């Protein structure tokens, strides 16, 4: 990783290169879904952040983009809007390094909260955002961006809004390698119930709602292990997972639960929510 340099973007050519990374990483074919160059530059010059990952030849292979925002309570925060790494450079922890750079830059501004959104049914993103970075989720947005193309096509654009509290113990423990995630068997042995679980049916792996009206200390919610593959195999099942998981998350969040852990074992994936 020594050959990869993380720094703020500086030239027009670097900002233009962001468009190519967006297209490749997110399978974007509609120019309206790209972040325009003039928005990136304006954000960078007014308290925001546009940083890139550059290979040993100086080519942009990843970027992260965010801007200043405010919570409902009037607290200043950083809104992390987009991060992407070229497919050929994925699997090298470049996204992780970009997030750590973002954290350092935001802390220099005296800001301790970064928020962003992601699709809660995307296992890789869940593992990264919740499991690796230590963000938490307690806000659910239904069809936030309307109909989308590329990897988002076919289902409503529901999103978690996550909170990355930069000085929290959950974040510090993960960044320092001190965090030991719980095992599913241990949680089940402790009596943590499922609110949603997958079940093999004639149609495929389908979502099964379980009772979750009781105010228990914690709940487990399963998601498809590979949501993109599920969409290709059965769009109806993918839509059912979106619908039922959206219902469960929205209701549990409204009752004071928050996603605090993500587990992936034996080709199954689960969120842990605690009150």
How do you describe this structure in short?
With 275 residues, this protein is an alpha+beta fold. The chain has helices at 12-26, 37-44, 94-108, 123-132, 169-175, 184-189, 227-233, 235-254; strands at residues 5-8, 49-54, 60-70, 76-85, 113-118, 136-141, 159-165, 194-201, 204-209, 218-223, 258-265, 268-274. It is built from eight helices and twelve strands.
Poorly predicted runs: none
Rg to the nearest angstrom?
19 Å
Number of helices: 8
Strand content: 25-35%
Could you explain how this protein is built, in words?
The protein is of the alpha+beta class. The chain has helices at about 10-25, 35-45, 95-110, 125-130, 170-175, 185-190, 225-235, 235-255, and strands spanning about 5-10, 50-55, 60-70, 75-85, 115-120, 135-140, 160-165, 195-200, 205-210, 220-225, 260-265, 270-275. The strands form 2 sheets. Strands 1-2-3-4-5-7-6 form a 7-stranded mixed sheet. It has a 5-stranded mixed sheet with strand order 9-8-10-12-11. The longest helix has 20 residues, at about 235-255. It starts with a strand and ends with a strand. About 30% of the residues are buried. The mean pLDDT is about 95.
């Amino acid at each position: 990783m020594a050959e990869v340099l993380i720094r703020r973007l500086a030239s027009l050519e670097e900002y233009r290169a962001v468009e190519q990374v967006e297209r490749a990483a997110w399978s974007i074919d509609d120019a309206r879904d790209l972040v325009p160059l003039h928005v990136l530059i304006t954000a960078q010059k007014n308290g925001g952040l546009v940083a890139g990952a550059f290979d040993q030849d100086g080519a942009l292979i990843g970027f992260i983009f965010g801007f200043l925002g405010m919570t409902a309570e009037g607290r200043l925060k950083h809104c992390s809007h987009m991060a992407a790494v070229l497919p050929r450079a994925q699997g090298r922890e470049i996204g992780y390094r970009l997030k750590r750079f973002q954290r350092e830059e935001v802390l220099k501004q005296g800001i301790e909260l970064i928020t962003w959104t992601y699709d809660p049914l995307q296992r890789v993103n869940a593992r990264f955002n919740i499991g690796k970075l230590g963000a938490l989720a307690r806000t659910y947005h239904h069809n936030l961006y309307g109909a989308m193309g590329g990897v988002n096509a076919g289902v409503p654009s529901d999103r978690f809004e996550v909170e990355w509290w930069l000085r929290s113990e959950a974040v510090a423990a993960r960044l320092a390698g001190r965090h030991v995630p719980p095992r599913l068997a241990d949680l089940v042995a402790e009596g943590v119930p499922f609110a949603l679980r997958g079940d093999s049916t004639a149609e495929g792996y389908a979502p099964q709602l379980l009772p979750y009206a009781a105010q228990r200390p914690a709940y487990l919610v399963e998601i498809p292990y590979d949501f993109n593959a599920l969409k290709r195999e059965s769009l109806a099942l993918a839509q059912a997972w979106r619908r039922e998981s959206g219902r469960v998350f929205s209701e549990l969040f409204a009752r004071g639960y928050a996603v605090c852990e993500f587990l992936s074992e034996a080709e199954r994936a689960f969120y842990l929510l605690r009150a």
